[in-house]
């Protein structure tokens, strides 16, 4: 049990910082609200500090047979699985303000660490079909700022044959069997794919992981991989102020996704990366994963810290 003195000490520390940051002052009186994003917030010095802070906070729970650190020279192909692996914003956690520039995701950072430059890849897609949606049910999806970016994302996923762009979300679809009409949707077919050293599949459409439809794709892209990087955990839709969870178990079918991969590839190393704020019970993952890395919500350069 804690003591009143301990609670008082913690309270003073918390509110001292809040007062120093001007959180209880009128916004126009707070100097930090006038900082320029590119010249100050994302300056090289601040980005280096963000990365160092994330590196020091990341916790290694398990590392069987010295699975980590991975050697870039030994990896011919790596499968990265999980919807949070491609979502840079989820790394910022609660109470964040959406940055003016994209936040590098864990996938982005791993590609960079392995010397993979997908930005040199020019995607080719067919003529766009207006008001057409190829996704008839839960599909792997990523945030996408433009139709061109959606085409690029489809080309980066070896199982994506068609894409649908709607409400700044890119659905990656493996066949045309679900084609139907949706007002405002834009769709096309991918004409070529990037030659991958790093493969990604969602496995689940979001961290809630209410469906298992994406498991087969995850198993497919993990085939012939030297290592599987499985990103699990929570996001701001599952935990936030005023929105408590009813259980500390991994959401939905996340543990089932791990079990599916473990069964399919018993001799391939599976590294589990946790992205979350609140407590998590890992179940069989705690004893069956080859390595477990807890990244928490690691911040603006958290993806780079995980790759390090």
Summary keywords:
308 residues; alpha/beta; 27% helix
Structure overview:
With 308 residues, the protein is of the alpha/beta class. Helices cover 27% and strands 19% of the residues. It has nine helices and eleven strands. The chain has a six-stranded mixed β-sheet with strand order 1-11-10-9-2-8, sandwiched between helices. A five-stranded antiparallel β-sheet has the order 3-7-5-6-4, covered by helices on one side. Helix 7 links the parallel strand 9 and strand 10. Helix 6 (215-222) runs parallel beside helix 7 (254-264). The longest helix has 17 residues, at 4-20.
- What would the average pLDDT be, to the nearest integer? 91
Give me the number of helical elements: 9
What's the oligomerization state?
single chain
Cα(first) to Cα(last) distance is 38 Å
Please compute the radius of gyration using only Cα atoms.
21 Å
Strands ordered across the widest β-sheet: 1-11-10-9-2-8
Shape: globular
What percent of the residues sit in helical stretches (DSSP H or I)? 25-40%
| Percentage of residues in strands | 15-25%
Number of strands: 11
Task: Give the helices and strands as they follow along the chain.
Answer: HHHEEHEEHEEEEHEHEHEH
